[in-house]
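PROTEIN–LIGAND DATA SHEET

This sheet pairs a single protein chain with one bound small molecule, S-adenosylmethionine, given as SMILES. Inputs appear in the order they were entered. The predicted three-dimensional arrangement of chain and ligand is reported afterwards as a token string under its own label.
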Amino acid sequence: MRCAFPKSFEVSETPRPPSGSNFCCLTVGSTISKRVANLQFEFEAMRSSIAEAILQGTHKLRKAGVPEARREAGSLLAHVIDRDRSFIISHAEDQITSEEMARFADLVDGRAKGKPLQHLTGHQEFFGLDFEVNQDVLIPRPETELLVETALKLLPNSGAANSICDVGTGSGCVAVTLLHERTNACGVALDISPAAIEVAKRNAARHGAFDRLEFLVSDCFAEVDREQAFDMIVSNPPYVSLHDLEGLQKEVRDYEPHLALEAGADGLAIIRRLLVDAGTYLKPGGHFLFEIGFDQRAAVEGLIAPMVSSGSWELLDIYPDLQGIPRTVSLEKLT
Ligand SMILES: C[S@@+](CC[C@H](N)C(=O)[O-])C[C@H]1O[C@@H](n2cnc3c(N)ncnc32)[C@H](O)[C@@H]1O
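PREDICTION REPORTED AS:
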């Protein structure tokens, strides 16, 4: 694939969601402490201070079993008043309006029922960039940053343009981050879900990658021009087995798209297809990097073994994530 760099594209930066976990530093004044003693812990559409609202929200989330309830309540309130975490900490006594309180109560209610925080705020940070997310895309995971890090090590920062294909782009977090980090790169972001492709387009526009990416609604490589040869193919494919899907956290199982998670009886249905087809769309010397599930190393090595022994591929490594789980497979096409 040849990269073209047409018109420049304005990046419109929207406020970042609050992150970090220093909500525990929030100090609550004695007046509030007295009121807390009598709190009904039910939201009322009335004016309240930031600290009081967070206390009420924290209580409701804790009762619902939400881990890190205080941090999440803080994130939701920060989202409602369109401020960041540091503002909330330094303005704990500021009043919020009854409308803001009502919106906050709604969001806390949704979170208490199991809706992911990121679906309520519409944001997730990935590799230091803010990504729009919704119910049509997987919420980008921290372990997928390893896929990006591994890819960046193989993509030179200068010289000839690199072409990349991201299979199952979802929010676009992998493709967009790679193009954000490598301004000489271009490529294709594809997904079987048209709704996901729309989210990926918006994220690409926000981060200056829109006019270097072609977006395709495609079942794996079905819609990719067979004449195209990329320098790199990356994928965080669905890899959860039908059996494991049932055991996933409620937030994931009930709210994230199953299309993004499930891949047949052993979770390897899409990976198998990609291993068969990737070579057709890669230049010799090109790389194919993909993420795997926590227990898939041996099975994936078994699938790769004949490709390596035929002399057409080299398995560079399978890198562990921060928890030591084998996560990112890195292959080089030799011929
Ligand atoms: C695990 S999600 C990864 C999303 C994103 N790349 C990320 O890392 O957050 C997998 C994505 O693959 C897409 N997908 C599932 N089956 C596909 C197929 N047969 N062809 C193309 N994309 C597919 C899903 O719609 C989903 O967006």
